[in-house]
Specification:
Structural class: alpha/beta
Largest sheet: 9 strands, parallel
CATH superfamily of the largest domain: Alanine racemase
Number of helices: 11
Number of domains: 2
Helix content: 25-40%
Number of strands: 17
CATH architecture of the largest domain: Alpha-Beta Barrel
CATH topology of the largest domain: TIM Barrel
CATH class of the largest domain: Alpha Beta
Radius of gyration: 24 Å
Order of helices and strands: EHEHHEHEHEHEEHEHHEHEEEEEEEHE
Distance between the termini: 12 Å
Shape: elongated
Length: about 375
């Protein structure tokens, strides 16, 4: 890596391949994998990840979270794989990008959350003489997050016989899935399975059914159905995988300054309680504007030459200072690893800072100015 770079994020293609292989070996044979790209692929860079995964035939489908993400992915990648919009959108939001070609209705697949949305999509498709492809979102409860089981059964015939809509998928999301000891997860999976068994067999043949997220792939592989969705596990976040997956993102910087600093001299926004003497301080040009959650934790530690060091004071927006007192072998230009190796991997950081398991993936979220580089 060119040491002139101040800071960057390395995305390991080898780890992506490994993690996909682990999940395919866990799932039922023939289960498709949908790669989740929302949130800029959890911070890894959604266009790069999509293009790489498609070119290497590592994914069967992709999914994003917003209309703007879908438009960007169509504009900046050449792959024509199906792209599922998981988030809710209204027909009027979709009109302009469909008309001007920013969204390809042949590759785009939309989530249907309720019957009002379904009917408005049908009218839009009829108006332009096209057929829109959709996946029906199912929610056990009538919570507004999808069709509840009773409503799905009530409207099933209308859904599958609309001439303007191609219903090609049906899915659920189990919110309790990251609670390892929860009996609720199993109960909700069983309820979803009960609904699947009630689907008209003629309609079932048309559907790609999916309910597994990253955690459920490892905990309940028997619920594979036709496809599984993966985001956090693919990108190396702990997913109750028993250590099978590898870290994908490594966030790094280079030391640009080393100086002996009097303990009375403030290093950050607010002076800390100090003692007499001096400290040897290494500076790195990366801050909480680059890694908002990662560098705003109370106990930030980094690796230099495979040794752990703590911050001398809290991180600034653009830079951080590291106490390297007593380590005379560290030099300007040395690499600092902030995330992605033993000691500073997501699980280690989560344990040190009491971050809930379900929020580990927040550590990957980075600002746009942090360059992402694909590495083997």
């Amino acid at each position: 890596m060119n040491i002139r770079k101040s800071s960057w994020a390395e995305v390991s293609t080898g780890a992506l391949k490994h993690n996909i292989a682990v999940m395919r070996s866990t799932l039922k044979p023939g289960t498709k994998i949908c790669v989740i790209l929302k949130g800029d692929a959890y911070g890894l860079g959604m266009t790069r990840v999509k293009q790489y995964m498609a070119e290497n035939r590592l994914a069967d489908m992709f999914a994003c979270g917003t209309i703007s993400e879908m438009i960007t992915l169509f504009a900046e990648t050449t792959d024509v794989s199906d792209l599922l919009l998981l988030g809710h959108c209204m027909a009027e939001e979709l009109r302009a990008p469909l008309v001007d070609g920013r969204i390809s209705y042949k590759s785009a697949v939309f989530s249907i959350w309720n019957m009002d949305q379904f009917r408005s999509f049908s009218k839009l498709a009829e108006e332009y003489g096209i057929k829109l492809r959709v996946h029906i979102r199912i929610d056990e409860w009538d919570s507004g997050m999808g069709l509840c089981h009773a409503d799905y059964l009530k409207y099933e015939n209308e859904i599958f016989n609309d001439p303007n809509i191609d219903v090609c998928g049906l899915y659920g999301h189990i919110y309790s899935s990251y609670d390892e000891g929860s009996a609720e997860t199993k109960r909700e999976l069983e309820a979803f399975d009960s609904l699947v068994k009630k689907i008209n067999p003629a309609y079932r043949k048309r559907l790609t059914i999916h309910v597994q997220n990253s955690s459920l792939i490892f905990r309940y592989p028997e619920y594979s159905y036709d496809m599984a969705r993966t985001g956090s596990a693919l990108y190396g976040m702990p997913s109750m995988d028993n250590g099978k997956i590898m870290s994908v993102m490594k966030i790094c910087g280079t030391i640009f300054s080393i100086r002996d600093v009097d303990n009375e001299v403030p290093l950050s926004y607010e002076a800390q309680n100090v003692t007499d003497g001096t400290r040897k301080i290494a500076r790195v040009m990366i801050g909480y504007a680059d890694c908002p959650l990662l560098l705003s934790q109370p106990d930030v530690q980094v690796l230099i030459k495979d040794r752990m060091f703590t911050l001398a004071e809290e991180a600034c927006m653009d830079n951080l200072c590291i106490d390297i007192t007593g380590n005379d072998d560290i030099s300007v230009g040395d690499k600092v690893v902030i995330l992605g190796k033993s000691g500073v991997n997501a699980e280690d950081i989560a344990l040190r800072n009491s971050i809930d398991h379900v929020h580990c993936d927040w550590m990957l979220i980075t600002a746009g100015r942090l360059e992402k580089v694909l590495v083997e």
